[in-house]
Design brief:
It contains 7 helices and 19 strands. By secondary structure, the chain is an alpha+beta fold. It has 3 domains: 119 residues, Adenine-n6-DNA-methyltransferase TaqI, Chain A, domain 2; 80 residues, Bipartite methylase S protein (Helix Hairpins, Orthogonal Bundle), CATH 1.10.287.1120; 123 residues, DNA methylase specificity domains (Adenine-n6-DNA-methyltransferase TaqI, Chain A, domain 2, Alpha-Beta Complex). A 4-stranded antiparallel sheet has the order 2-8-5-6. Strands 11-18-15-16 form a 4-stranded antiparallel sheet. Helix 3 packs antiparallel against helix 7 and helix 5 crosses helix 7. The radius of gyration is 27 Å and the shape is elongated.
């Protein structure tokens, strides 16, 4: 369907009514949700509205609109906005996502908005039929996003449960669950005994747009570079920063930042070691970090990291299972990120 009519410039008070939240403490427990600026809080036995609305913070968090499905209650720091005739509440929710709310902050302290300020904000609005088509598109996209988010979270929980079952607990030499015909005790080995460990040599700004090879830094994202220095199969570990300890499985030729550790020449199954390091290293980083300091990894922390290893045959069984699960988790994460990028693109290009 094609819409050719121009969008009209209107003040928000022409398309919505701003309502105030109220204190809920006098109410009893029930099944009606109470929302604050951070989202759902608890459930009570009374409602403020029996029609859907859009929540926006009066004080505190003022730039995180919420879609409020009726019936609901909101606290006094959260306005709820209901639609007027010839306006669609779901379209209003989308409009609220592209408004730069911090621009309208009225306070020098805790961020604040007033009814008057919100009412006077000018925006462009199409006819109700086009509003309806746009909101259906975005809400369908949101449902798909939520589906992939749930799948991603469920797979992450499955992985966490498997790691607890497939690896020995503290002071034990065998895991709770094992593949059939594997009965030997696991051996304790240092990471430096089963892999060669070194660091990259480059600055983080050595990355090149559209380079030929992967470039691993201390972040989650992989960059590109034109000159390789390592060849997989390898594991890279972020040595400092907010994502210290984050690991990648690196294959083919690649390069690395000077604070990124590169593991090669494995004497054990790489996928198994990847999971075992993921079990042990975060705890080690936490033990070694000092209050107030940004955590970081030193070479000895890795070379001396104690791992439990079964026979190569059992390593390969466990490693294969975890590699398949990691690939599935990565797939859903990529889909999730692409859907988020698509939504962002559509919000930027379908509104005036």
């Amino acid at each position: 369907m094609t819409f050719l009519r121009y969008w009209e410039r209107k003040e928000l008070n022409n398309i919505l009514k701003i309502n105030s939240g109220r204190d809920y403490k006098q109410l009893n427990s029930g099944n009606i949700p109470v929302y604050g600026t951070g989202g759902y809080m608890l459930s009570v036995n009374d409602k403020l509205s029996d029609t859907d609305a859009v929540g926006i913070g009066r004080k505190g968090t003022i730039d995180k609109p919420l879609y409020l499905k009726a019936p609901f209650w909101t606290v006094d720091t959260l306005f709820y906005c209901t639609s007027k005739e010839n306006s669609d509440v779901k379209f209003i929710y989308l409009l609220f996502q592209i408004i730069n709310w911090k621009r309208y902050d009225e306070s020098t302290g805790v961020p604040s908005l007033s009814k008057n300020t919100i009412s006077n904000i000018k925006t462009y609005v199409p006819k109700i039929k086009e509003q309806d088509h746009i909101s259906k598109l975005f809400f369908s996209l949101d449902n798909t996003l939520q589906l992939h988010e749930r799948k991603y979270e469920e797979l992450a929980l499955i992985k966490k449960a498997l790691l607890q079952k497939l690896f020995p607990k503290n002071d034990e030499v065998a895991p709770e669950v094992r593949y059939k015909n594997f009965n030997d005790a696991w051996e304790q080995r240092k990471l430096g005994e089963v892999a060669h460990i070194e660091t990259g040599k480059l600055d983080a700004n050595a990355m090149v747009e559209n380079g030929k090879y992967d470039f691993y830094t201390s972040g989650i994202k992989k960059y590109r570079i034109d000159i390789p220095a390592f060849k997989g199969p390898a594991i890279t570990i972020a040595g400092n920063g907010a994502t210290v300890g984050y690991m990648h499985l690196a294959d083919g030729e690649f390069n690395a930042y000077q604070r990124t550790y590169v593991l090669t020449k494995f004497l054990a199954n790489r996928h198994f070691i990847f999971s075992e390091i993921g079990n042990k290293l975060p705890r080690k980083i936490q033990q070694e970090s000092r209050a107030g300091n940004i955590p970081y990894i030193v070479m000895d922390m890795l070379t001396d990291l104690q791992l439990f290893l079964p026979s190569i045959a059992e390593q390969e069984k466990v490693g294969e299972l975890l590699n398949k699960l990691n690939s599935l988790i990565t797939l859903h994460h990529r889909k999730l990120e692409k859907l988020k990028q698509l939504k962002k693109f559509l919000l930027q290009n379908m509104f005036i």
